[in-house]
Amino acid sequence: MAGAGLDGNAVGGVNIALKKKIGALAYLFSTLTALKAKPPRLTATWDGGSAEGEWMCIGNGRFFGGPVVLFPDAKLNDSRLDLCVFPRINPGSVSRGVTSMALGQIGDWPGAEHHRVSELTIDSPTEARVQADGEFIGTLPLTVTLRPRALKVLVPAGK
Fold first, then answer.
1. Residue ranges per domain, the chain?
2. 75-105 burial: b if 16+ Cβ within 10 Å, else e
C-alpha cells in the first residue's frame, strides 16, 4: 500500500525527535499539519485512463493503516492494483472521512473514486511526498507496477 498527498505528507512530515518522545502520537500532529497545508494537485495515469485528486492511495490488499478497509474489492491474486482517488481534501470531506475511518470503511469517503489498474504513474506539478506501508519513501513522480506471482513463499519441509 502506498499513498501520495495527505498520508504521504503526514508520514513524510513526522518530526523524528518528537516521535522518539511520544511515539505514534507524532503522526497525529504531522497529520494535523498536513491538513492545514494546501493539498497538492495529483494526476494518476494508466493505460486507458486517468484521474485527478488531492490524495491517492494504491494497494493490492484491502486494508489501509491496519483495520480500515480502503480497497473493498481488492484481491491479492487478481493481477490488478486498486487505486483510490480522493478528489478534494477540505474540512467537510475530512470530517466525514474520519467518521468513515472510525467505522472501519474509508472507501466511502465523499467523492472517492476507485479504479483497478495493472500499472500507473502519479505525478504533481508541486512537490508531494509519498509513503509506502507507513514509511516515507520520497516524492512524486511515482510509478507502480504489479508483478504477478513475484512473492515466493517458502514452506519448511514437513509442513
1. 2-145
2. eeeeebbbbbbbbebeeebbeebeebbeeee
Q: Is 70:107 a contact under the CB 8 Å cutoff?
A: yes
Closest by alpha carbon to 145, among 107, 118, 114? 118
Q: What is the pLDDT of residues 63-96, one digit of tens each?
A: 777 777 788 888 888 889 999 999 988 777 777 7
CA 101 from chain center: how many Å? Answer: 14
Q: For residue range 113-159, what is the model confidence (pLDDT) as tens digits? A: 999 999 999 999 999 999 998 899 999 999 999 887 776 777 777 65
Structural domain 2-145, CATH architecture: Sandwich (2.60)
